[in-house]
Design a protein that fits this description.
With 112 residues, the chain is α/β, with parallel strands linked by helices. The protein has a domain at 41-111. It has three helices and five strands; from the N terminus they run E-E-E-H-E-H-E-H. The strands form two sheets. It has a three-stranded parallel β-sheet. A two-stranded antiparallel sheet has the order 1-2. The longest helix has 13 residues, at 52-64. Keywords: 4Fe-4S, Iron, Iron-sulfur, Metal-binding. This is 4-hydroxy-3-methylbut-2-en-1-yl diphosphate synthase.
Length: 112
């Protein structure tokens, strides 16, 4: 780079191409989504949700990495039953990703 040649990297970030559109505002736990809230970082665990300790460990790691909201898979009744313990101990809001069984929605609602 002694001759001042850029190697494919822009000197400045690209300009914003469009304004952020206005959307409805809602709260996911204590995290604001939409409207004027900043974009939230979301992720999903890769553990078996029924393994409460492993899931909480992964949520703690995601939180430390800057995650604001986390999703957990609920493909079985055991996973749905674990939601209450996970939601109670998680530092960030937990969203249940329900798979094919609408009855698990009720476990998610009861878990908070």
């Amino acid at each position: 780079m002694s001759d001042g040649v850029m190697l494919g990297m822009p000197a400045l970030p690209p300009p914003v191409l469009s304004e952020r559109r206005k959307t409805r505002q809602l709260m996911v736990g204590n995290v604001g989504v939409g409207s004027e809230f900043p974009v939230s970082v979301q992720s999903m665990t890769t553990t078996l949700t029924a393994d409460v300790n492993a899931t909480l460990q992964q949520i703690a790691e995601l939180t430390a990495a800057g995650c604001d909201i986390v999703r957990v898979a609920c493909p079985s009744q055991d996973d749905a039953d674990a939601l209450a313990a996970i939601a109670k101990k998680s530092q960030i809001p937990v969203i249940a990703d329900i798979h094919f069984q609408p009855k698990y929605v009720f476990a998610a609602i009861e878990a908070g």
